[in-house]
Write a structure and sequence with these properties.
It contains eleven helices and no strands. The protein is mainly alpha-helical and 224 residues long.
Protein backbone atom coordinates (compact mmCIF):
# COMPACT_ATOMS: atom_id res chain seq x y z
CA UNK A 1 0.00 0.00 0.00
CA UNK A 2 2.91 2.35 0.75
CA UNK A 3 4.28 1.74 -2.75
CA UNK A 4 0.93 2.69 -4.26
CA UNK A 5 0.88 5.97 -2.31
CA UNK A 6 4.44 6.70 -3.42
CA UNK A 7 3.64 6.04 -7.07
CA UNK A 8 0.49 8.17 -6.91
CA UNK A 9 2.45 11.06 -5.40
CA UNK A 10 5.16 10.71 -8.04
CA UNK A 11 2.54 10.97 -10.78
CA UNK A 12 1.25 14.27 -9.40
CA UNK A 13 4.69 15.78 -8.86
CA UNK A 14 6.16 14.87 -12.24
CA UNK A 15 3.06 15.82 -14.21
CA UNK A 16 2.67 19.21 -12.51
CA UNK A 17 6.35 19.98 -13.10
CA UNK A 18 5.90 19.02 -16.75
CA UNK A 19 2.98 21.45 -17.08
CA UNK A 20 5.33 24.30 -16.16
CA UNK A 21 7.86 23.45 -18.85
CA UNK A 22 5.82 22.44 -21.89
CA UNK A 23 2.51 23.24 -23.59
CA UNK A 24 -0.54 21.70 -21.93
CA UNK A 25 -1.60 19.94 -25.14
CA UNK A 26 1.78 18.23 -25.44
CA UNK A 27 1.85 17.13 -21.81
CA UNK A 28 -1.70 15.81 -22.17
CA UNK A 29 -0.79 13.90 -25.32
CA UNK A 30 2.15 12.22 -23.58
CA UNK A 31 -0.01 11.32 -20.59
CA UNK A 32 -2.29 9.36 -22.90
CA UNK A 33 0.52 6.90 -23.49
CA UNK A 34 -0.42 5.49 -20.08
CA UNK A 35 -2.93 2.93 -21.44
CA UNK A 36 -0.30 1.69 -23.91
CA UNK A 37 2.15 1.11 -21.06
CA UNK A 38 -0.56 -0.53 -18.97
CA UNK A 39 -1.35 -3.05 -21.68
CA UNK A 40 2.34 -3.75 -22.25
CA UNK A 41 2.85 -4.42 -18.52
CA UNK A 42 -0.40 -6.25 -17.78
CA UNK A 43 0.81 -9.57 -19.18
CA UNK A 44 4.22 -9.83 -17.45
CA UNK A 45 3.11 -8.25 -14.15
CA UNK A 46 -0.48 -9.45 -13.82
CA UNK A 47 -0.74 -12.41 -16.16
CA UNK A 48 -3.62 -10.77 -18.05
CA UNK A 49 -3.56 -11.31 -21.80
CA UNK A 50 -4.62 -8.61 -24.25
CA UNK A 51 -6.59 -9.50 -27.38
CA UNK A 52 -5.78 -8.20 -30.85
CA UNK A 53 -9.02 -6.24 -30.95
CA UNK A 54 -8.10 -4.74 -27.61
CA UNK A 55 -4.83 -3.41 -29.06
CA UNK A 56 -6.70 -2.01 -32.07
CA UNK A 57 -9.12 -0.20 -29.76
CA UNK A 58 -6.23 1.17 -27.72
CA UNK A 59 -4.33 2.72 -30.62
CA UNK A 60 -7.53 3.89 -32.29
CA UNK A 61 -8.42 5.74 -29.10
CA UNK A 62 -4.91 7.17 -28.85
CA UNK A 63 -5.18 8.48 -32.40
CA UNK A 64 -8.51 10.10 -31.63
CA UNK A 65 -7.13 11.80 -28.53
CA UNK A 66 -4.06 13.11 -30.36
CA UNK A 67 -6.39 14.54 -32.99
CA UNK A 68 -8.33 16.32 -30.24
CA UNK A 69 -5.41 17.77 -28.25
CA UNK A 70 -3.40 18.69 -31.36
CA UNK A 71 0.07 18.70 -29.72
CA UNK A 72 2.49 21.35 -30.94
CA UNK A 73 5.81 19.59 -30.41
CA UNK A 74 7.01 22.48 -28.26
CA UNK A 75 8.41 22.55 -24.76
CA UNK A 76 11.77 21.74 -23.25
CA UNK A 77 13.53 18.39 -23.02
CA UNK A 78 13.22 18.66 -19.24
CA UNK A 79 9.45 19.06 -19.47
CA UNK A 80 9.23 16.13 -21.87
CA UNK A 81 11.28 13.96 -19.50
CA UNK A 82 9.12 14.89 -16.51
CA UNK A 83 5.95 14.10 -18.45
CA UNK A 84 7.23 10.71 -19.60
CA UNK A 85 8.35 9.75 -16.08
CA UNK A 86 4.99 10.81 -14.67
CA UNK A 87 3.20 8.73 -17.29
CA UNK A 88 5.29 5.67 -16.44
CA UNK A 89 4.44 6.05 -12.75
CA UNK A 90 0.79 6.46 -13.69
CA UNK A 91 0.82 3.15 -15.55
CA UNK A 92 2.59 1.41 -12.66
CA UNK A 93 0.06 2.86 -10.23
CA UNK A 94 -2.85 1.42 -12.21
CA UNK A 95 -1.14 -1.97 -12.37
CA UNK A 96 -0.51 -1.81 -8.62
CA UNK A 97 -4.17 -1.02 -7.94
CA UNK A 98 -5.23 -4.09 -9.88
CA UNK A 99 -2.73 -6.21 -7.97
CA UNK A 100 -3.82 -4.83 -4.58
CA UNK A 101 -7.47 -5.50 -5.38
CA UNK A 102 -6.77 -9.21 -4.99
CA UNK A 103 -6.21 -8.83 -1.26
CA UNK A 104 -7.53 -5.40 -0.23
CA UNK A 105 -10.91 -3.70 -0.42
CA UNK A 106 -11.50 -0.86 -2.86
CA UNK A 107 -12.19 1.58 -0.03
CA UNK A 108 -8.96 0.69 1.77
CA UNK A 109 -6.87 1.10 -1.38
CA UNK A 110 -8.41 4.47 -2.21
CA UNK A 111 -8.15 5.78 1.36
CA UNK A 112 -4.56 4.76 2.02
CA UNK A 113 -3.41 5.92 -1.41
CA UNK A 114 -4.74 9.43 -0.82
CA UNK A 115 -3.80 9.55 2.86
CA UNK A 116 -0.29 8.30 2.15
CA UNK A 117 0.14 10.82 -0.64
CA UNK A 118 -0.97 13.64 1.67
CA UNK A 119 1.57 12.58 4.29
CA UNK A 120 4.35 12.42 1.71
CA UNK A 121 3.83 16.00 0.52
CA UNK A 122 3.09 17.42 3.98
CA UNK A 123 6.76 18.32 4.75
CA UNK A 124 6.78 20.70 1.76
CA UNK A 125 3.84 22.71 3.12
CA UNK A 126 5.86 25.37 5.03
CA UNK A 127 7.94 26.10 1.93
CA UNK A 128 5.16 26.33 -0.66
CA UNK A 129 2.06 27.48 1.21
CA UNK A 130 -0.08 30.16 -0.43
CA UNK A 131 -3.20 31.25 1.44
CA UNK A 132 -6.22 30.35 -0.73
CA UNK A 133 -9.21 32.63 -1.09
CA UNK A 134 -12.64 31.33 0.00
CA UNK A 135 -13.44 30.50 -3.61
CA UNK A 136 -10.16 28.66 -3.99
CA UNK A 137 -10.84 26.74 -0.77
CA UNK A 138 -14.17 25.61 -2.19
CA UNK A 139 -12.52 24.56 -5.45
CA UNK A 140 -9.74 22.72 -3.61
CA UNK A 141 -12.22 20.84 -1.44
CA UNK A 142 -14.33 19.98 -4.46
CA UNK A 143 -11.25 18.78 -6.31
CA UNK A 144 -10.24 16.66 -3.33
CA UNK A 145 -13.66 15.03 -3.12
CA UNK A 146 -13.70 14.39 -6.85
CA UNK A 147 -10.20 12.90 -6.72
CA UNK A 148 -11.22 10.63 -3.87
CA UNK A 149 -14.30 9.46 -5.74
CA UNK A 150 -12.23 8.89 -8.88
CA UNK A 151 -9.67 6.86 -6.96
CA UNK A 152 -12.34 4.71 -5.34
CA UNK A 153 -14.32 4.10 -8.53
CA UNK A 154 -11.18 3.23 -10.49
CA UNK A 155 -10.13 0.75 -7.81
CA UNK A 156 -13.64 -0.65 -7.71
CA UNK A 157 -13.62 -1.13 -11.48
CA UNK A 158 -10.24 -2.86 -11.31
CA UNK A 159 -11.63 -5.27 -8.72
CA UNK A 160 -14.14 -6.55 -11.26
CA UNK A 161 -12.43 -6.01 -14.62
CA UNK A 162 -9.00 -6.76 -16.11
CA UNK A 163 -6.80 -3.71 -16.41
CA UNK A 164 -6.50 -4.20 -20.18
CA UNK A 165 -10.23 -3.50 -20.47
CA UNK A 166 -10.19 -0.47 -18.18
CA UNK A 167 -7.13 1.30 -19.60
CA UNK A 168 -8.44 2.25 -23.09
CA UNK A 169 -11.57 3.76 -21.54
CA UNK A 170 -9.45 6.51 -20.00
CA UNK A 171 -9.52 8.19 -23.41
CA UNK A 172 -13.20 8.99 -22.92
CA UNK A 173 -12.31 11.68 -20.38
CA UNK A 174 -11.49 13.91 -23.34
CA UNK A 175 -15.14 13.65 -24.36
CA UNK A 176 -16.27 14.66 -20.87
CA UNK A 177 -13.84 17.57 -20.98
CA UNK A 178 -15.39 18.57 -24.30
CA UNK A 179 -18.90 18.51 -22.81
CA UNK A 180 -17.89 20.46 -19.69
CA UNK A 181 -16.01 23.02 -21.77
CA UNK A 182 -19.03 23.58 -23.99
CA UNK A 183 -21.65 23.73 -21.21
CA UNK A 184 -19.71 25.68 -18.57
CA UNK A 185 -17.29 27.79 -20.59
CA UNK A 186 -18.96 28.08 -23.97
CA UNK A 187 -16.03 26.49 -25.80
CA UNK A 188 -17.17 25.48 -29.27
CA UNK A 189 -15.38 22.31 -30.46
CA UNK A 190 -13.57 22.34 -33.78
CA UNK A 191 -14.08 19.80 -36.55
CA UNK A 192 -10.88 18.04 -35.46
CA UNK A 193 -12.14 17.76 -31.90
CA UNK A 194 -15.49 16.37 -33.01
CA UNK A 195 -13.76 13.91 -35.34
CA UNK A 196 -11.42 12.81 -32.57
CA UNK A 197 -14.38 12.35 -30.24
CA UNK A 198 -16.09 10.08 -32.74
CA UNK A 199 -12.93 7.97 -33.00
CA UNK A 200 -12.65 7.70 -29.21
CA UNK A 201 -16.29 6.60 -28.96
CA UNK A 202 -15.69 3.96 -31.63
CA UNK A 203 -12.59 2.75 -29.79
CA UNK A 204 -14.53 2.49 -26.53
CA UNK A 205 -17.20 0.44 -28.28
CA UNK A 206 -14.50 -1.92 -29.57
CA UNK A 207 -13.38 -2.56 -25.99
CA UNK A 208 -16.72 -4.18 -25.26
CA UNK A 209 -16.92 -5.98 -28.59
CA UNK A 210 -13.50 -7.52 -28.07
CA UNK A 211 -13.24 -10.93 -26.36
CA UNK A 212 -12.55 -10.29 -22.72
CA UNK A 213 -8.93 -10.74 -21.62
CA UNK A 214 -8.24 -13.64 -19.32
CA UNK A 215 -7.90 -12.12 -15.84
CA UNK A 216 -5.52 -13.23 -13.17
CA UNK A 217 -7.28 -14.88 -10.22
CA UNK A 218 -8.74 -12.46 -7.70
CA UNK A 219 -10.23 -13.03 -4.30
CA UNK A 220 -13.85 -14.13 -4.24
CA UNK A 221 -15.32 -12.01 -1.47
CA UNK A 222 -17.17 -8.84 -2.39
CA UNK A 223 -15.31 -5.55 -1.96
CA UNK A 224 -17.19 -2.62 -0.44
Amino acid sequence: MALQALQFTAVLLFIFVAYRHMPLADATAISFLQPVLVLLLSAPLLGEKVTRLGWIALFLGLGGVLLMVNPTGGGSLFGLTMSVIGTVFSALSLIQQRSLSRNETSLAIAFWTLAGSALLVLPSLPFNWVQPTPTQWALLIGNGLASGACQYLTTRALFHTPVATIAPLSYTKMIWALIVGFVWFGDVPTVLVLGGSAIVIAASALVYLAPKPVPAPVRLEQAP
